[in-house]
């Protein structure tokens, strides 16, 4: 927002939908995070929790799709709060930008988190006497993120190839695993009553609260759809195509995730053994269905590579989000983090910051037995807050501030979607800060609370010493506000072009 459209639009609707599907990677994230929902409601939480999260995330995506249609800009949510009251706009933009940037950093961390969990599971399966140490997983986690960093920093030109490969690999893995598991397990399937009605509570919390905590799995598998907004400048007709992609990726993620989880539960075998398995529930289900350790590990290669692809793509989006926010003066040392490397043509300093913060996130591994839940909670909570602020502003202003646009929800549907989204965000923002187990100890505490508090303190301090004086919010372009221009040019490419002109 604030720049004329200059970036060449290379992505079709189908290719961008594939990219969004690769970012969400719903079936992989949902299956790899079964350790969240199986003890917190069992099959009931896995299936019906996902459907509940799917409906609520669909309401969120539809609500934000209206903004995307009106203002298809890479800044996304912290630009969209420009429809708020003039005096409040800088502060709301500041809060939204910090929440969104923090959420994407935490979401980047979940890639290495899921990958390290699966690799530790493989080691445990092949070596039953192996005793996993927290620092083992921490090192694998770092390796995952370093690989993602190196590819983002030094193989930027190959990123489109990676994203296309990720889409094909993900769809292939989805089909191959489903067919293989059903064929190998036949006819020893679990009953429909078990798959859709088995309730388990091993958390120590009351049954109702346990089921609600299991919603975190669905939240993880469907969050990140705003990545479409941060890449919107690279597709033709963004105000028309963008909203379709944003809503479509949530629908596809919910559908494929539900199908895949149903397949897993039908071939799950003894569900209590799956929950307690040191090989992770996903790999144990593979073993139960195929009867082969080697075959199960071969199948696991699909989600392992999917997670790596997701880590690469999410780190790209996270670094761009940090870069864009720094470019608007929203971060400490903004001039430093808004620099673009002349030769690599990437925001290298923003990439460094992303990777450093992700590694710091990983330190939770060393002190908490519930690090998995803490990191996942941080990503979902922060992103949901960033989704909720522009939606809330839109509602408080009577849904009348968005200009004429191609995607408009009918009044009743719009209000329903907005209110459902806000209710879900308000409820889960508190709920997902709960520890996964009761009684609560220092080890199983949900350190998302601490992460949330640290980010809040830093952002407030930065606002007091600098932001309230110098941060005016996103730069506004009159043409953009009137709906005549869809998006600004890519900030990174813009700086590179300026550098080239200076050299000439």
Properties at a glance:
single chain, mainly alpha, Amino acid/polyamine transporter I, 24 helices, 71% helix, globular, disordered C terminus
Task: Provide a descriptive summary of the structure in words.
The longest helix has 38 residues, at 89-126. The chain has one domain (13-503): Up-down Bundle (Amino acid/polyamine transporter I), CATH 1.20.1740. The chain is 71% helix and 0% strand. The chain has 24 helices and no strands. The chain is mainly α and 504 residues long. Helix 2 (26-32) packs antiparallel against helix 11 (215-222) and helix 6 packs antiparallel against helix 22.
Helix/sheet category:
mainly alpha
CATH class categorisation? Mainly Alpha
Give me the CATH fold name: Amino acid/polyamine transporter I
CATH architecture classification name: Up-down Bundle
CATH superfamily: Amino acid/polyamine transporter I
Estimate the global geometry from the Cα principal axes: globular
Largest sheet: none
When the domains are counted, the total is 1
Report the average pLDDT across residues: 84
Helix content: over 70%
Question: First CA to last CA: what distance?
Answer: 28 Å
Q: Count up the helices.
A: 24
InterPro entries: AA/rel_permease1, AA_permease
Pfam family, one: AA_permease_2
Subcellular location: Membrane
Membrane topology: Multi-pass membrane protein
